[in-house]
Structure formats: C-alpha cells, structure tokens
Amino acid sequence: MTNPDLVHAIRGGIVESFHRGAVAIVDADGAVVQSLGDVDRPIFARSACKVLQALPLVESGAADAFGLTDPELALACASHGGDERHAATAASMLAKAGLDETVLECGAHWPSNDAAMKALARSGREPGALHNNCSGKHSGFVCVGCMLARAQGRDAREFVRGYVQPDHPVMREVTAALQTTTGADLANAPRGTDGCSIPTFGVALRQLALAFARVATGHGLAPGRAQAAQRLRKAVAAAPFFVAGDGRMDTRVMERLGERVFCKVGAEGVYCAALPEQGLGVAIKIDDGNNARAAEVVMAAVIEARVRLDDAERGFLRDFSDLTLKNWNGIEVGALRASPALRSALG
Amino acid sequence: MTNPDLVHAIRGGIVESFHRGAVAIVDADGAVVQSLGDVDRPIFARSACKVLQALPLVESGAADAFGLTDPELALACASHGGDERHAATAASMLAKAGLDETVLECGAHWPSNDAAMKALARSGREPGALHNNCSGKHSGFVCVGCMLARAQGRDAREFVRGYVQPDHPVMREVTAALQTTTGADLANAPRGTDGCSIPTFGVALRQLALAFARVATGHGLAPGRAQAAQRLRKAVAAAPFFVAGDGRMDTRVMERLGERVFCKVGAEGVYCAALPEQGLGVAIKIDDGNNARAAEVVMAAVIEARVRLDDAERGFLRDFSDLTLKNWNGIEVGALRASPALRSALG
Known about the structure:
homodimer, 8-stranded antiparallel β-sheet, 3-stranded antiparallel β-sheet
C-alpha cells in the first residue's frame, strides 16, 4: 500500500519535495473514525508515547511520595530541548528520590535547542545526561525504581542499575503500561532499541491512536491508570515549556490550547495527540521519518479539522500547517503546507 | 507515478522509515542508460549543479586573471561546512579580485560543520557571509563580475551589485551555462529562488544527468567549456576538502577516488555525479528532500555499481550505502541501507 502525500514543500510554484505518511484517528472504543494510508503496519512510537511510559510514575505512588511538581511530571513526558531549566528540573526529580544524574542511563548529547546548545558551547562545558532530551523520562523511571526498591527494602541506587533493560522491574512496569493502553501484544511485537537505550515496540498506528483516545478519556483504563493519565495531561498543560521547550510545536500548541490538546512528537516522523473534548486519539507516521516539516504540518492540520477553535486559534494552527519558507536573506522562497489530499480528506 | 523506495532505515528488524526517489544515469549523447522512477518531472538542482554554475568563472578568464588556486576553484563549486579555512579561502578569492566580503549577497548562517559552528560560538562571534556554505560560489560570481566590469571599464564594486538577480550580467552567464549543459529551455522552466538568493530552475533529472555526462567527458560542449569543466573537476579532485569539508561524503569520496568520481550534493535530496571513466552522468532526487541519509546512500550504491573499484574501495563505499546506526550510548540500534529494490536494479 502506498501512503498518500500529506505535505508539500513548494518552491518556484511547483512541488519541490513531498512527504507521504499515514494518519489514524480513533475513539476510545477502538473505532477508526478516520484513517489515511496504512494504519496497520507496525511502527515504532519512539518518544511520542512518553506519556504512556510515564503512567507508572504516577500509578506507583512515586509522584506523590517524592512530591513531584507539574514541571517535573511534564518533564517525565518530555523530549526537551536541553535548556538549563530542563536539566535542573531533571536533577531536582533525581534529588527528590535521593539520587543524582550518575544513575541515568540515557547517554549524553548536545541540547537540541539551538540557543541552549550555543550557550553550553560558549561556556566551554560538555553536555551530560541531564541535557539528553529524554532525561526527564529517565528520571521518572528512576523514581519508579526507588519506589520499588523501598517496597522491597533494597538500596535504591543498586536497584535501579540497568533500568533500561527490557527485563528490569522498572521497564516491565513501563512496557505493561504500553501494552494495556495500546492493546498490542508486545511480547510478539517487533522490538527495537530507542535512542535512549530503552526498548521500543512496533505497534499499529491505530493501536497507538487508541492509546491516546484512552489517555484523552480514561475509558478502557483501570481507575488508577485513568487518573494517572489525566494528571499527566494536566501537568503538561500547566507547564508546557517542560514537555519540549522554546519554539517547539508541542510547547506552543499546549501554551495556546491548554488541556484541549495533548500532543507529543517522537523521532522518525511519529506524532500523537489526545483530544479530550472529542474523545479521540490521533497517531501520525511520516514514511520518511521527518518530524519538523512533515509530522508537525500534518498534526496541525488534524487539530484544525477536529478541535473546536476560534478564528485566532485557527490562524495560530495555520502557521504550522501552511507556512512561508524564507532564505538566509529573509526572501520568501516557498511554502510548506498540508497537501490538497490531506486537506480534502480531513474536510 | 510513484517512485520506488530507494533507502531503508531499519530498527528492530523491520523497516522503520524509508525514502522514495528517482535516479537517472545518462551518457553524453543523452541516452538514458538506466533510470529508476520519474526522471522527467522538473526538479530544482539546487547546489548539486554548482560546478555548472562555476563554468563561467574559468571560461571568462577570471580564474587565470586572478590566479585562482585549486582550493579556490573547488570552493567555487562547494557547499562547504563553514570551517575557518573555507571562509579564509573565499576571502582570498575576493581579495584577488580587489574586493571583500561586503559585496557578497548570499546572506549569513552558522557553519554546518559542527566543530566549526561550536568553535565560532565559543569565540563569541557571529557568522558572516564568508561562513555561508555558498560563499565560494558567490565569490566566484563576484570574480566573473569583476572581469565583465574590467572589459567595460566599469567600477567592479558597483558593477557586481545585485549579481544574484536573474537579469544581472553575471547571472545571465551562469544561467546560460546551465542551459547549454542541461539542454533545458530555462526561459520556460519553473524558476525558484535558492537559499543563497540566486535563481534555481526546474529541470528534468535526465537533463541534469546529461549535464554531468558532459562535464565527465566534454562531449557536446564547446572546447572552452569542456576545458573549463575538466579544470574544475581536477581542482576539486586536488583539493576535495574545499568542496564540502571534514566528514562530508563529497570530500571523503573524492579524497579516496580522486578524478574517477566528481560528485556534488544539493539541498532537498538532490545528488549529481560525473563518472569520467564511464562517460556517464548521474542525477538523484529523493522525493522527501533528505540528503544525509537518503541521497548519499543512493549515490554510494550507484558508484559501487558503476565505477571500477577494488575491494577496499568497495568496502569504503559500502560504509555509506549500508551503515550501522548507533544511539547516544553507542549501542547498535539499526541500519541505514540501499533498499533491495535499488540494489537489484543497479545489478
């Protein structure tokens, strides 16, 4: 099955490049309300499913036991830009659990936020694990591990070692949350290793969208899990800077629309959203893996089509789904926009 | 027409993402020796055609008049990384023409080479036009303008002003070189504005490949133009650092294979090559515009299939066409490789 072209990059009046992909919009009963392209092919959700992976952080009691704040819970769901405020917030989560960044197993990379990266370079320092875009998620995993260690009377630092491994008690909790929300049989799903070294599972786009419909509504989840999902959504809506960062679409959309949209981008052109007012989950996968100029355009077009917006909000989203491209001299050279096929399908 | 998938990104044993595109391999008579996908759709060659745009620099006599060196001629064909050696070489070209960077109209951006960018950030300076990846090409344009000004007894600085405009005498020379090498009717072709503000024209991939077959062989070009093409190819082979930079595929391939391959990447997934021993031109366009992990993989596979290589050289190319992907912890997480469809077609 050839997926439809969803995004066009225009230059000189013609389509210079384009992006194909698939979109699943699903309700909490698992009914596919709308689909474009192949929504059954297994895809790796990557960082788009961090909110699902953060459910044990709340359900385990760790969030309450350690007094985690909204920014900290948002950071647990985040692919952050490596700003010093992000790094400090991850450090704070670890400190509340009585540990520090030396337990993190996500690896280090330079901040993806350009200003943060240049500031770090100017300071003459090198990035550490706290700057990794996944440091909040990993700090959340460590908090879960500390709760499990407490319950078993074990030393926390020793207990959490190897938490990224599929069979570690922490990762088993995380995988179980992924399994019950998506309804996928993860024991028999393709399994890869993510950028931050934890397992990532191949699930159908429709299953991923179902998980987000469940996050949106709580339907189909045990009461404690439904409450955890709602708490995480509300934390991100209250502190959207911490789920991504300056200039990033996730942050900007949730700053603007608050709890009406929970959206989260992942590597390789995956983008998911929970739309609580509509009771829907959305999952997008761009064939070629492009986030910034493909998955984001499609997500904006989906939000425009599905969420009740006023004119100003519609204009705000349009700046993501139909944008002018300028060159280094600030001259308009083209546009990036949702394809006619996508607009037509979304209605 | 749906282009075939040419590159697979593999994770967890499945294809996570993939890139479609088209390939044209053409001889100097314009015969299509091999094609995959749509080679007739107009595409913007972008920076892949810089060697064609540099022909007037040699043909006009500017290269001789100003005593341009191999690194300077290579830089005129370059999308360089913004290393200080690149910036200094562009400055040297301008100085030889009696001018300086204030005449450049390419705009400024941070170096694409990571080490160069961080070094500039650490120094507390901001990037200038000399750091623009196109500064060598633009310095070449300025040299052409200075020759034209001399011939007309005009002030050079005043004459070159506005050289990026389609109707400026310099750009008319550049466009004429593009027209005669590709055989395209550029007056009636789609015209866009490139990242560095000069015009870019939509030409069929087969026409672009033909231009590179002509660069490879000189066949079909006037003697002066054929000599200019050969001189530029030899300059790049002699100084491949200056056509791209540290770690870049163009530089690495020509460091290794010398004059046997002239290859040049462009924005939006375009990649062209001249294969002098085979008398062939190659032009690649990735539908989604991805260079680093799509166009480069395809080009490496084409070179493997078409150029006579020893085993070590074949292994060298294979590192571009079939590579292991590692994460931030250095753990192997997948692979990036020429698709079975591409390998099979190339034979």
